[in-house]
Amino acid sequence: MGTMSFIAASDMTMSSVNSFRLTLTLHPEVQAKAQAEIDRVIGRARLPTFEDRQLLPYVEAIYQEIMRLHPPVPFGLNHVSPEDDFYEGYHIPKGCVIAANIW
């Protein structure tokens, strides 16, 4: 079980990294702007850390957009409505399959 979880997690990580690399390759102007933000805020003496995320709004926006466009898993688990329901004014009939977006 542990090995399968590790393999699944590493596959999702590589999927995200590959989506990130592909997107920035296809949009070099975005990559240049992100690099400029990193150079301006962090400099070239070290790599950014998780603590730097709030200081890098453009890089954070790129990350969020790539996760939106290319999520490592398309949706969460599907659910079936056990009874008629209403959510924010929408009728959800009994037996309706509900697929929640990961965002």
UniProtKB/TrEMBL annotation:
Xref: InterPro entries: Cyt_P450, Cyt_P450_E_grp-I, Cyt_P450_sf, Cytochrome_P450_fung
Keyword Metal-binding: yes
SUPFAM superfamilies on file: Cytochrome P450
Domain of life: Eukaryota
Cofactor: heme
Pathway: Secondary metabolite biosynthesis
Annotated keywords: Heme, Iron, Metal-binding, Monooxygenase, Oxidoreductase
GO MF annotation list: heme binding; iron ion binding; monooxygenase activity; oxidoreductase activity, acting on paired donors, with incorporation or reduction of molecular oxygen
Any matching Pfam family: p450
Family in the record: Belongs to the cytochrome P450 family.
UniProt name for this protein: Cytochrome P450
Species the sequence originates in: Rhodocollybia butyracea
